[in-house]
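Protocol step 4 of 6: structure prediction from sequence.
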Amino acid sequence: MPEKSNDGRMDYIEFPATDIARTKLFYGEVFGWKFTDYGPDYTSFEDGRLSGGFSKERQAVRGGPLIVIYAHDLAATELTVRRAGGKIAKEIFAFPGGRRFHFLDPNGNELAVWSER
């Protein structure tokens, strides 16, 4: 039974995916995420802090919630995203508290990466 202290906390997040294999390669290469497959149309991921999944049930829609990932070295992460086939949606820019960039993953999901430097 889940702990009461977890009430109201974000527990799991799901993303749409058109190509599970390519999705696993991309996120594994860029962020080191680990995956567990549940059939050909679903894989779950663990990033060391939060878990979630990629499902072929839905299509990516831009303009929804923005998931923001932390990176110690923002420029190196941006380069890795590009090399892994991600498309930069917004180049690195400053905002109160740090800098960030936005990218599109192989499925068209938009995410962001930030750093305090």
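Step 5 (inspection) to follow. DSSP finds two helices and eight strands in the chain.
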